[in-house]
Amino acid sequence: MIDCDVHQNFDHVRDLLPWLDPAFRDYVVHGGYGGYSLPNYPWLHPSGFMRGDSVPADGGVPGSDYPLLREQLLDAYDLEYAILTGEEILSVSAVPHPQLAGALATAYNRWLLEEWLPKDPRLRGSLVVAPQDAEQAAREIRERGGRDGIVQVIVSGGALEGYGHARYHPIYEAATELGLPVAVHVGGEGLGMNRPPTATGYPAYYVEWHTLLPTTAMSHLVSLVCQGVFERFPELRFVVVEAGVAWLPSLLWRLDANWRALRVETPWVKRLPSETVREHVRFTTQPFEQPGGSIESLWAVLDAVEGLEQMLLFATDYPHWDFDAPDQVVKRLPRAWHEAVLSENARGLYRLPAPVLT
Amino acid sequence: MIDCDVHQNFDHVRDLLPWLDPAFRDYVVHGGYGGYSLPNYPWLHPSGFMRGDSVPADGGVPGSDYPLLREQLLDAYDLEYAILTGEEILSVSAVPHPQLAGALATAYNRWLLEEWLPKDPRLRGSLVVAPQDAEQAAREIRERGGRDGIVQVIVSGGALEGYGHARYHPIYEAATELGLPVAVHVGGEGLGMNRPPTATGYPAYYVEWHTLLPTTAMSHLVSLVCQGVFERFPELRFVVVEAGVAWLPSLLWRLDANWRALRVETPWVKRLPSETVREHVRFTTQPFEQPGGSIESLWAVLDAVEGLEQMLLFATDYPHWDFDAPDQVVKRLPRAWHEAVLSENARGLYRLPAPVLT
Fold this sequence. Notes:
homodimer, 358 residues, 13 helices, 8 strands, 10% strand
């Protein structure tokens, strides 16, 4: 199995100091109230965002301790690969100071390359960029996107605009140059300068915020298709991470029907949107929907999207509280989909070597 | 058949002058650039928001001409009842001046009661309120909500907050006193002072805005459930209008799963959210999803929500461009659902008399 959403983290942004541009070290050491912190969530899971058993013995941050991550995830489930997606660092998208945001992303990427990827041959990395300055992000992609172990670029769902906007095109240009997919990981909505998380502003509770997270993914997906990003960058692959999947039939039906009726508004969109999505976009399974009744009702929804078995990527979301245990995901997937979703779709997308037969 | 979303309109807000509080007549006559207009959409359907054939012979606004509405809708489809939902007036929610907004809503309601409902025994009305001042809205509900022909209160999806917020409780208190459901009609998002229409701000194109409209309905629905509105007002019924239905399985699965895991955060929510929604919320069918493949894929999605056949209300959305012709809706509904969805659910909700057998 290839796990496409694994959150490794630093204990504190201070840990990035050795890799941070010296011009910004004073921010991290002395900034704010006795040290810089990235924008944090005003909605809190009442018992914590992380699995209780994922706190390292030294009291550090879940995901910061490689031996524990290896034990609880890589070894426990005999994973072939784990795609690291970062955690707190994704919130650089919410930082108004674009140079600081970019410098923090770069420091994180250097730390990822030097401190994490060499630890285990099963680990692969996502290059974090701060999308508010896409030219800066593109430079980072060209500088470090080709390093061994980097398999995609990643940005947060929380953003200033839908990711179809032309302001983000430099990111896609650089990513396609390097043959890297671009992942959008839900989260960061409403933080710092990012847009409020819903069409009705700021929800009151974490349960609302978390339930509505897929709506951010919907907005970005519709934006990418309608602004013609995939016509402009035909090699681009996009990955929607941590938004679940059961909302796809209704969204794609609606988008297709509207495109048929309204295509004069966006003549650069040449194909049926669902075909474009099928070719260009992949979705990680977690948080994989749990039907209230029989599993067949979930399968019926999955079957409503043509070719979905080629579009899904298995993910656990370790060490988040709503971790999808692999045995549970396997039970919720139609048997015929196992090979594609559990490993082969990711292997193809990320060009991961096949296992050596011994 | 009972059509639960029919848009009648005035030609111009000037038409409401005889019913408008004199204190605000100068706004309408002299305000702005030579006369007041309600906030209008920056996203435009390239060939117009309305069915081309719905423009009256005098060149007026679609939905403003009763004989044409009767001919094209009431008589053409032999409707038993049509629930009028207004049109431009729903944008009072976006007007920063709350007294002006309330006065316009009141003038519209008086016009509806005097000029529209007496025209045809098949017409029923929705009382428009300006939710930004809920106490004012509650006074309007108590003043006119009991008049003959009024069957519900209506507000726009575009709003300042999710409709679960305590600021809106006076509306629910007054509506339940009068035994009226409260309808939220998608639209108005991002207009005037309302919140941007998506979690990524303002989409570029009408096709995006329209495709993503159900996300507003999702936000309000989640807000209502999580803030405990239906525990506080156990008699309240809510109607989600013009948001389609195929997104319900994924949203309710996610909300139920999150409630199970997170209920300590909202201890006032006593029941499984999907049960609360099944008891308290109804959804109009239009724009009824059109599956790309076989109709069975739509039915499979509908079947994934327990009891959905009791929750749907047939609607055409006349005279909007995406009008759902009744014969098309009938074909897209499972046969066993016809009676409930086409008429009986609405008859029960709105307490409409059964036809007299002759």
